[in-house]
Amino acid sequence: MTGGPKLARAVPLLMLVLAASPASPRQPQDTRSVWDGVYTGEQADRGQPLYRKECASCHGDLLTGGEMAPPLAGGSFLSNWNGLTVGDLFERIRKTMPQNKAGKLPRTTIADVTAYMLKVNDFPAGKEELSTKTEALSLIQIETSKPERKK
Ligand code: HEC
Q1: CB count, 10 Å around CB of 24?
Q2: Is 100 a pocket residue for ligand 1 (Cβ < 6 Å)?
Q3: Which of 28, 60, 98, 107 has the fewest CB atoms within 10 Å of its CB?
Q4: In this structure, which residue's CA is closest to atom 4 in ligand 1?
């Protein structure tokens, strides 16, 4: 017995896994930030009623937080997330929210709600919708203040 055939099957599989795993979120050349117009206005408009339905009872209509739940907009929220990625935020919501029925919302709903949250936090809309794929979202940095860039 040589392990040949087995290895021949394992190697392409390994390559697939490597290709599919998210790139390091810290590589500046292929990262974007929330300042780059990473959602559309239309998507945020879809997100608003979804937010009202699924999140507002705890986090407040204006994302200012409630008795138990923290705000989802403004300085203290942003300082919690500064330096992390939209992928981190998306996964946090996907796995733990709404707190009373975590893990139940479809990715499209979470993406739309996240777009709405970005809008309320005053990040600019753009031409492309926020992805529903965590790997793509992990390339978008959350930066509290607008980075200075050459146009
Ligand atoms: C039943 C109440 C409830 C609902 C509904 C709810 N949340 Fe929460 N959420 C909480 C509580 C309480 C916390 C703080 C405790 C924790 O982190 O689990 C929290 C924390 C969070 C955080 C972390 C905030 C931070 O700065 O670390 C995010 C993001 C979040 N919620 C998003 C959402 C979104 C988006 C929805 C709707 C899809 C939602 N939540 C619905 C109660 C709720």
Answers
A1: 10
A2: yes
A3: 28
A4: 98
